[in-house]
UniProtKB/TrEMBL annotation:
Belongs to the WrbA family. Its EC number is 1.6.5.2. It comes from Sphingomonas suaedae. Signal peptide: none annotated. It catalyses: a quinone + NADPH + H(+) = a quinol + NADP(+); a quinone + NADH + H(+) = a quinol + NAD(+). FMN binds at residues 10-15, 79-81, 135. NAD(+) binds at residue 12. Its cofactor is FMN. GO terms for molecular function: flavin adenine dinucleotide binding; FMN binding; NAD binding; NADH dehydrogenase (quinone) (non-electrogenic) activity; NADP binding; NADPH dehydrogenase (quinone) activity. Keywords: Flavoprotein, FMN, NAD, NADP, Nucleotide-binding, Oxidoreductase. This is NAD(P)H dehydrogenase (quinone). PROSITE patterns: FLAVODOXIN_LIKE.
Amino acid sequence: MTKVLVLYYSSYGHIEQMAEAVAEGARSAGATVDIRRVPETAPEAVVKGAGFKTDSAHPLIDGPDALKDYDAIIVGSPTRFGRMASQMASFWDTAGGVWYQGALHGKVGGAFTSSATQHGGNETTLFSIITNLLHFGLTIVGLDYGHADQQKIDEVLGGAPYGATTVAGGDGSRQPSVIDLAGARYQGRRIAEVATKLAA
Ligand SMILES: Cc1cc2nc3c(=O)[nH]c(=O)nc-3n(C[C@H](O)[C@H](O)[C@H](O)COP(=O)(O)O)c2cc1C
C-alpha cells in the first residue's frame, strides 16, 4: 500500500488544518497516511510572546531517517517573509545524510502553505519548499486545475497550480475556507494517486 507522509509546521493552526485535509485526500486514494510535525525551534520567549499554538494531536517526526519510509512526502509550512518557516527549513537542514544516500530519489512530493495576505508570498513559499524537495530528488505534484474552484474571484481564497494555500488574514482570524480545504484534499489525493502509479 502507498505510504504518504504529511509533514508540517504551524504556529497558529492554519497549516495544521490544511495538513489534516491533505491527509484526508491521500487516504481517499487508498494510501496509508502519517501526519507528523517538525520540532519548534523558536525561543520559548517568542513562542509565548507571539502566542504560538503548542498543543497538537500529531506527533513529531522521528528524525530525518523517517523520511525514507514513505512513497510520498507532502510538506506544509506557513509563509515567513515569502519563504518557508525556519522550523521546517531547519528540519531539512538536518537531513544531509538522507540527501547523500539519495534515499528520497523518485518519491513524490508536494507543498502547501498559508500566508496572512493574498499576495504576501505564498507562491514563493511553495517554491522554497519545492526547491528543497527537488534537491532531494522528489517528483513534484502541484494543485492542477482539476481543482477548478481555484479560478474563482468572488471571494478570498487560496490555491495555486504550485500547491494548496490558505489566507489567514493579518490577525490570523480567517480560517481555511471550504474551497481552501477542498484544494488541500485534492492535492493530497492527486499525490497519493501519482505515488501509487509510480510504484506500480
Ligand atoms: C515572522 C513572521 C513572518 C511572516 N511573514 C509573512 C509574509 O511574508 N507574508 C504573509 O502574508 N504572512 C506572513 N506571516 C503570517 C503567517 O504566514 C501566518 O501567521 C500563517 O500563515 C498562519 O499559519 P499557521 O496558523 O499555520 O501558523 C508571517 C508571520 C510571522 C510570525
